[in-house]
Structures are given as structure tokens and as C-alpha cells.
Design goal:
The chain is mainly alpha-helical and 164 residues long. Helix content is 51%, strand content 2%. Strands 1-2 form a two-stranded antiparallel sheet.
């Protein structure tokens, strides 16, 4: 018995043509940085440009307020004396190295909000001492790039259910 069947086994995928695009919403860390009306951030190049130019003091203070950092905690993270930071005028441009740290802070807090499901829960966690950080609160080690890396890695572990 022989069956003759016509088979066209071509390895082709037939799918309707469609344009895939991302909605025009900026990542939420742009919202932490771009609160001022004079600062419009829509993509990473805007952040790079702004960081290279330096941030106005008012933007740094606005960020600190949104993420519940006092001026002492902010100045420790930025490696600037509290008094020097206070002396700047609100519209004065802060140096680029401080702007870079501000971008990292915004990225970290945005990531923390994603992992914990709310900014409030993350704010509590970051100020709570933990065994992983040798009894220190995560916010206290953000004065170094290694500290930022440790906190980002711990957020990844928490997200994947690894609490060791």
C-alpha cells in the first residue's frame, strides 16, 4: 500500500507583517531626575548630556527628597561636604562627578522599586542594616561604586528568591 502525499515542508514562517515598537514612556528613573520644568529627559543621551554639563543643586535636592535621603546622607554618597552642598545656590550647577552619582542613585532606587513592588518598601529596606552588608544599612555603602554594585547584586538575588 503506498500513499502518495504531497508535502511542501518548507521551513517558512507565515506571520502577518507587524511593526513592533516600544511605547514612548521613559524609564521611571527619568522621573526621579527630571522633575524640574527646565529639565526634559526622554532618553539616555539626554541623561549623558545633563550629567556632562552637571546638575543644578535644586535637581539633586529634589532627587534626595523623592528618595527620602537627608542632606547628610546625600553629601556622604556624593563625596561632598554637607556645608559645601548647602552653600551652593539652588540654580548653581554641581560638578559632573556628583551628577553621575545622582544618576546611579536614581537607577538604583528605580530598580529597588521594581524588585520590592513599591518605593516605600524599598526605602525601608535600604535603610535597614542587614547581615549581607555586615550589619550596615545598604544606604551607608553607596559612597563607593563597589557599594552600588553590591546593592544591585543583592536586589537581583532578592528578585530571584535567593536570600543568602
Amino acid at each position: 500500500m503506498s500513499y502518495k502525499s504531497k508535502s511542501d515542508n518548507k521551513n517558512e514562517l507565515h506571520e502577518p507583517m507587524m511593526a513592533y515598537s516600544v511605547q514612548g514612556t521613559a524609564p521611571s528613573f527619568y522621573n526621579l531626575l527630571g522633575s524640574s520644568k527646565s529639565v526634559k529627559l526622554s532618553n539616555d543621551f539626554d541623561i549623558i548630556k545633563l550629567a556632562r554639563q552637571g546638575f543644578p543643586k535644586s535637581l539633586l535636592l529634589s532627587l534626595a527628597k523623592k528618595i527620602s535621603l537627608n542632606i547628610q546622607e546625600l553629601s556622604n554618597i556624593l563625596h561632598i561636604s554637607e556645608r559645601t552642598l548647602q552653600r551652593y545656590d539652588d540654580d548653581a550647577i554641581i560638578k559632573t562627578e556628583y551628577a553621575e552619582k545622582a544618576v546611579e542613585l536614581a537607577r538604583l532606587y528605580t530598580r529597588g522599586e521594581e524588585v520590592f513592588g513599591s518605593m516605600d518598601k524599598f526605602k525601608i529596606w535600604i535603610k535597614t542594616p542587614g547581615i549581607v552588608f555586615k550589619g550596615e544599612a545598604p544606604v551607608t555603602i553607596l559612597d563607593t561604586s563597589a557599594g552600588f554594585d553590591m546593592v544591585f547584586k543583592e536586589l537581583g538575588r532578592i528578585e530571584h528568591g535567593i536570600f543568602a
